[in-house]
């Protein structure tokens, strides 16, 4: 671990529980989001379905190591933007909420089981789930008072969650840290499963 990342890794065990204790409201009510940057920034951070999936992307990238540690957190927002465009254009996508819930389950299990998928397969898995997350936001985005500011805030909030996952994932450098990371993956899978049960 580089010296620059050590302080972030040390503070993450405190930050992650706070993120997971955020308001447990379903993030996609279909009502849209008025506002701009602050609304966009807070939306992924205050929705557990987003928190668990986006932290899991960073965690899994860290488990897989370089270059996945940086590629997966870049793939997710890029493909999410494509999914958002589909939502804005009104292109239907079935089972969006199910796909979002499954992202927590699958990505959490990938971390908990330390799945060593080849990078192209890992990127495809992350990308598929990113489409669901993006589509959900794309259908809400036109209702925002300032869609550009909302989008910028949302991307920054998403990046913060990815970085939190990466920082926590860096604990895998030590045996005890690997246990913490696997437990975090299991917790993410459980939260995703709870969302999935609520949708079914």
From TrEMBL:
InterPro entries: HupE_UreJ (IPR007038). Pfam families: HupE_UreJ (PF04955). The chain crosses the membrane at residues 43-63, 70-89, 95-114, 119-136, 148-172, 179-199. Residues 1-27 form the signal peptide. The keyword Membrane applies. The keyword Signal applies. Keywords: Membrane, Signal, Transmembrane, Transmembrane helix. This is HupE / UreJ protein. The lineage of its organism: Bacteria, Pseudomonadati, Pseudomonadota, Alphaproteobacteria, Rhodobacterales.
């Amino acid at each position: 671990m580089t010296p620059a990342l050590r302080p972030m890794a040390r503070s993450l065990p405190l930050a992650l529980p706070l993120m997971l204790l955020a308001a447990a409201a379903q993030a996609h009510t279909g009502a849209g989001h008025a506002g701009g940057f602050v609304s966009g920034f807070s939306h992924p951070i205050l929705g557990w379905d987003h928190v668990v999936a986006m932290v899991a992307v960073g965690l899994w990238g860290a488990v897989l190591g370089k270059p996945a540690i940086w590629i997966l957190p870049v793939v997710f927002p890029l493909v999410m933007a494509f999914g958002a465009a589909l939502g804005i254009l009104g292109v239907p996508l079935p089972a969006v909420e199910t796909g979002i819930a499954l992202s927590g389950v699958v990505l959490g299990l990938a971390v908990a089981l330390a799945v060593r998928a080849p990078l192209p397969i890992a990127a495809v898995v992350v990308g598929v789930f990113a489409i669901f997350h993006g589509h959900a936001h794309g259908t809400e985005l036109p209702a925002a008072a300032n869609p550009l500011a909302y989008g910028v805030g949302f991307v920054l909030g998403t990046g913060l969650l990815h970085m939190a996952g990466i920082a926590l994932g860096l604990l895998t450098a030590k045996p005890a840290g690997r246990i913490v990371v696997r437990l975090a993956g299991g917790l993410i899978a459980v939260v995703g499963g709870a969302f999935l049960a609520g949708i079914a």
